[in-house]
Amino acid sequence: MIFNKTNNDDSLSEVHESVDTTVKKTGWRRTLSFLGPAYLVSVGYMDPGNWATDLAGGSKYGYTLIWVLLMSNLMALLLQSLSARLGIVRGRDLAQANRETYPKKMNFILWVLAEIAIAATDLAEILGMAIGIQLLTGLPLIWGVSITVLDTFLLLYLQRLGIRKMEAFIIGLIGVIGFCFLVNIIMASPQLHEVLQGLIPSLPDAKDLYAAKGMTNALPKETALYLAIGIIGATVMPHNLYLHSALVQTRKIKKTEQGIRQALKYSFIDSAVALNIAFLINAAILILAATVFFQTGKTEVAEIKQAHELLSPMLGSDFASTLFAIALIASGQSSTVTGTLAGQIVMEGYLRLRINPIMRRLITRLIAIIPALIVIAIFGEDEVDSLLIFSQVILSLQLGFAVIPLIHFVSDKKTMGSFAIKPFVQFLAWLVASVLVYLNLKMLMGEALDFFGASDNMILKTVIILAGVFFVGLLIYSLIFPILVKTKKHTSIKIHPETSSINTLHIPSFKKIAIALDFSEDDGKLLAYAIGQGKEDTHYLLVHIVESASAKLFGDESDDYESRKDKERMDSYVLQLQSRGFTAEGFLGYRNRSKEIVRIAKGVHADMLVMGAHGHTGIKDFIYGETVNTVRHELKIPVLIVNL
Questions:
Q1: Is 131 within 8 Å of 382 (Cβ atoms)?
Q2: What confidence tens digit (pLDDT) does each residue in 445-454 have?
Q3: Full-prediction pTM beyond 0.85?
Q4: Which helix (H) or strand (E) is 47 found in, with range?
């Protein structure tokens, strides 16, 4: 099955509370058990979509805009800590909280916008990786874009290894990016006092700045304010707010006031460290561009390819450009993993719909790849940077719809209790949200006005105006709805949940228990567990799937050696159980293991299924299939999984 409707409200249920922080640990071991989620989030702050603004800011205005990076990092830290707070205190990710608060139609629109934003994020990551592959190998960009689809299988493998292994992989890629830029910075040897001056807030006039540096080249068409808006607008990513609120729930914590406060404390440390690393990497890109390009008068460098081509001759080593390309590939690869996780969170949170991970990845990737391939095939590689800018504009559209509900949720004392944010923090949060929404609206308005000035197409202009009105109206609605209407349903985790009476428990009695056997030495264990669930009048239904080549081709008409032997073994099991006084019957299935187990269990009206799990992980699970998960999602009856 590709799609499954899920009633499980656990965010990222496969890894939910999979890291136990309640085990007694001391010192750095306790701290390390909480660290990890923010590193997966931080890669969104250094993805290829941010490189263009950092390169442009450094090459055109030197070190003067470093303070903008620092300010945007502080904004991101505030919002990400609020996202983590929502997940830790309420046990809800942002998508789930939206589903419980807003009407169905509004939620559907929010879901569509979130999916578009994730596709736009993936587009930037694909282009970044493809450019990196091209710069490193000389492969045409269109082939590099096509190759990126293969990382679907890498992600699938990582998901099977567990959340800690995935976090380690991402931290490793961040380390690669940091190392590459550290070496390049050392080679560039920037003046430390000039770098530190960039931390002083200022928006210099290009004419004065260039005159002070004795530079006579043409002034940049972008003002320092415009580039500052671009840097801030490209920093906070909407999918990261969905992601962080879910990732913190991979930690199992004590649901006490002290336990939650401890989790919030370590989560903030995690966010502060991870986002500061992201800040340092972004600052390194800007400083590198300022040192190598601005200081030497090459202020026209604003594109990734230009920067790569000029780094080696400017620094006197081919190694510099190679490191730049490697960092770009690592940036795109790390970001694409987290983008897919965000897609899973959004779909399950808004729609309660679970999709097969490999299909989810393929769909998301194809949605991003197809526009990239079309643009490259029709317009050539020169339009790739325009496509990158377009992806950032799409992300800007979604940002307000993630930030505004988040602040509402963490400010609500009814659901957050004593963990609701204080008035001063609320003020800061709304101030940041206002700045971000304003800057993004300003950027979008500028793009629209540029288009209006260059086009005479009245139909398209009308569509843009109507879309703009709808967008602003939707933004206002998302702002005022939680204030005007009380939440109808609160299913959040509480520190002291209300208890209900257990005097009327209904103890089930299983009349028909199906047992999925694989005809191995483990069959006795499965039968023992099944009998342990039954009573004197229980009917035991033995199920085995014949998987020979002939059985897969001819089904129940197969008469090969394996089919005959399997029938003999089934008859033997049935007779042995009957000789012990049990009511037993055997059934053989053919072809697809999972589908046949489900078909037989439904056909015999079993009210319980017992099956074994062999503990395959990683690539083995991919090779042997996910029988247990597929079967349990298809059946509505209890499924007892026996670890073999």
A1: no
A2: 776 777 777 7
A3: no
A4: none
